[in-house]
Amino acid sequence: MEITDLLAPEAVLSSLKAQGKKQLLQEMAERIAPLSGLPERRIFETLIERERLGSTGMGQGIAIPHGRLAGLTKIVGMFARLETPIAYDAVDNQPVDLVFLLLAPEGAGADHLKALARVSRLLRNQQTCEKLRAAKDSEVLYALLTEKTNGSTSQAA
Asked: Does residue 58 belong to any structural domain of this protein?
C-alpha cells in the first residue's frame, strides 16, 4: 500500500490553524467531508469517539487520528502541517504539528491497519518529518509524502 493510495494532492494542508485538538479535528473533518462524500458531523463524531479510547498522538509532534465509517467506499487520508503546534495528549506529552487523518470503510479491518502502519512508518522517519516541517506549500508536502523512498518496503521497478 502506497501513500498515493490514501492521499490526494488536494488533501494536503500546508498551514492549518487550530487552537487545540477538538478544533483541529473539526477543521479536518470539515475539509475531508467533500473528499469522502460523508457528512462533516459524522466524521468529527467518529474521530472524537476514537480519541476517547486513547490519544492518536504518537509522539515527536505527530498524530494519526483515524476512524471507520459506514458509507465510505475506500480509505481516504488528509495530511496537515499545523501553523502552530498544539497540545494533543500525545504519548510523550509533546505538542503536535504534523497530522495524518485516515478514514476507512466500516469493514476495512486489515486494510485499515495496513494504512495506519504505512502512515506510521512514513512519519517515524525523522528526516522525512524534518523535510515536512521545512516545506512551505502543499505541493512540496505532497511530493515528500509520496516519495517512493519514504519508508516504503517495495523496490522501484
From this structure: yes
Active site residue 112: no
pLDDT per residue over 68-115, tens digit each? 999 999 999 999 999 999 999 999 999 999 999 999 999 898 999 999
Instruction: Evaluate whether 102 touches 6 at the Cβ level (below 8 Å).
Output: yes
What is the extent of the structural domain holding 26? Answer: 3-146
Q: Where are the beta strands (DSSP E) in 74-136?
A: 76-86, 96-105
Catalytic pick among 21, 31, 66, 112: 66
Residue 40 lies in a domain: yes
Distance from C-alpha of 11 to C-alpha of 78, rounded to nearest angstrom: 5
- Residue 86 domain-assigned (yes or no): yes
CATH value at residue 17: 3.40.930.10
Whole-prediction pTM: 0.92
